[in-house]
Design brief:
The chain is mainly β. The protein is built from no helices and eleven strands.
Length: 118
């Protein structure tokens, strides 16, 4: 059974920083793509950033220049360094691990709350 577990959320003032971590376990396969998504109250879940096993990254326009995604392939772990946080970054952040075995399988974490106060 694949498990995806996030950590590192919390409360921070605007302009501050947080680092999220996410580990996928229970599989011998390396996740092809790992990423972070977020969902604010009353809004749809949206992509924040993704990274492939080869290191290619993709960011939402709203976080470019402020957030950095990275990963440790050996540990099936992904990180999200969030700097210059804004109140509009407040959301539940979810980690996704996509594993390709004949077809893509998506696994999600339970989410971690990030709250940015003004």
């Amino acid at each position: 059974q694949v498990r995806v577990v996030e950590s590192g959320g919390g409360l921070v003032q605007a302009g501050g920083s947080l680092r999220l971590s996410c580990a996928a376990s229970g599989t011998s396969f390396s996740a092809n793509v790992m990423g972070w998504y977020r969902q604010a109250p009353g809004k749809q879940r949206e992509l924040v950033a993704t990274i492939t096993s080869g290191g290619m990254t993709n960011y939402a326009d709203s976080v470019k220049g402020r957030f950095t995604i990275s990963r440790d392939n050996a540990k099936n772990t992904v990180y999200l360094q969030m700097n210059s946080l804004k109140p509009e970054d407040t959301a539940v952040y979810y980690c996704n691990a996509r594993i390709m075995v004949l077809r893509p399988y998506d696994y999600w974490g339970q989410g971690t709350q990030v709250t940015v106060s003004s």
